[in-house]
Amino acid sequence: MNIIPTLRLACLLACTPLLGIAQSTFQLADETLPNPDNEPAPVHPVPHERQMKWQETEFYAFFHYGMNTYTGLEWGNGDEKESIFAPTAPPDPYQWLKAAKAAGMKGGIAVVKHHDGFCLWPTETTTHNVTRGGNAYARNTNIPRDFAKAARKLHMKYGFYISPWDRNSALYGTERYVSEVFLRQCAELAQYGTEQFEMWFDGANGGNGYYGGAYDTRSIDRDTYYDVPNLRDSVHKVCPDCVLWGVGGEARWIGNEAGWAGQTNWSTENRGYAPERNGMYGTENGWFWLPGESDAKGTNMGWFYHDGEKALTPERLFQMYLETVGRNSTLILNMPPDRSGRLPQASVDALEGLGQLLKARLSKDLARKADVSASATRRSGENRDYAADNLTDGDKDTYWATDDSLSTATITLTWKKPQALRYVMLMEYIRKGQRIKGFKVETSADGQTGWTAAATGVECTTVGYKRIVPLNGSTADSYGPGITARGLRITITASKACPLLHTLSVF
Predict the structure, then answer these.
(1) What is the 3-state secondary structure of 426-478?
(2) CATH hierarchy code of domain 49-362
């Protein structure tokens, strides 16, 4: 294309009097772009498709295993002898993931390199790896290979944690480390499967360490040092659905390690955010999509296995679920394998108990047998309608919406017979952005009169991908006798634009 005439035309038009433009042949058609399905306009920002798939994973496991399992440390210094890594049996990622699946999880992430720099696969980037381990079990270990194989067999998603900080490498803090060690390690891991859903990068950005014998302190600017744009591009070329967490900038730390997100929780953020202060809540008018992930420990001690540790009770884990997945966050729950390379039985039992609670409490959707109506419904298009019935059809790709002029509306569910109601679950159609800013929940004994506020004490503000509201107002003691009612009413009191919901469930 020859751009010179184009530039001349642009300058000419800019300098031509308005009358001259009106009389020229260059006129704008008095039309808008067609929208035959009458779809609502998106409220930006919106998630990338890989972020959508990541969000739909919802709940997945974290497995901290490595050199620290055998030293009793949480952060190794990097000078540990490779022979210390000596599993008492062949490490068994299949057992890890099978237990996670019993808990209702859809995937898992294995720690394959922590800050000590010890790699749980035979990498070409460093001799500080399993090939120099203390026994035959160690030297035959390849966690990325075996973890990916187990996930595929169990039909689960998988990914890997790799620490950008390396307290072992003499090159850390230099330009050579990023290109010769870190990026190469990420590329090696990407080769273990193109279907990886997340690569987990801790935010640690240096400090004291072994560093090849230097025993000094090294700090870097993680925003520039790790060459994140190149890292993202390289990983996505091999693993197109892989979200890069933390340093990768595609999902944010929820801001604590205690298993809770803010009741008001936006998936939008601004660059330069401070996750330690704001990660639990996001930023309402943030200009890019950065959803929250809550990393939490399922045991009472560290991230890595320690003698004497105990698994948290299924009830406590269920509360974490309500306060993370139920508050527009994902939950990555850590259960550390012991020195045999297997999960302790107590952890397996706790995960199975959690799965039983989730199934018993959040699987029988009472909304499916209710009559559903809405105070307002968007005009249908040629191939899509926005009826209230879309809320209870079990299809995430259909949704209810109002006309553009409305940002408030009421949805009502009624049953022929009284029901014991305990939880309400709302899911926005976030492919077109996060919108809802406020809502309220009410119940009625007869489904027509005497509407009474429910979930008192709960911040009924944001919804996002998923919001689960305990009607008794307590996540700590959420499963009581329930509220006996024939009617339930959701009123959206504020929204950035016309509200969109694809699912309304009641349990």
Answers:
(1) EEECHHHCCCEEEEEEEEECCCCCCCEECCCCCCCCCCCCCEEEECCCCCCCC
(2) 3.20.20.80
b/e code 86-125 from CB counts within 10 Å (16+ = b): ebeeebbbbbbbbbbbbbbbbbbbbbbbbbbbbbbbbbeb
Q: List CB contacts of 12: < 8 A, sequence separation 6 or more.
A: none
Q: What is the dihedral of CA 197, 203, 209, 210, to 10 degrees?
A: 20
pLDDT tens string 83-114: 999 999 999 999 999 999 999 999 999 999 99
CA distance 289 to 55: 12
Q: Which CATH code is given to the segment(s) 366-506?
A: 2.60.120.260
Per residue in 186-220, pLDDT (tens digit) is 999 999 999 999 999 987 788 999 999 999 999 99
Domain boundaries along the sequence of the chain: 49-362, 366-506
Rounded distance, CA 394 to CA 398, Å? 9
Q: Give the pLDDT score at 431.
A: 98
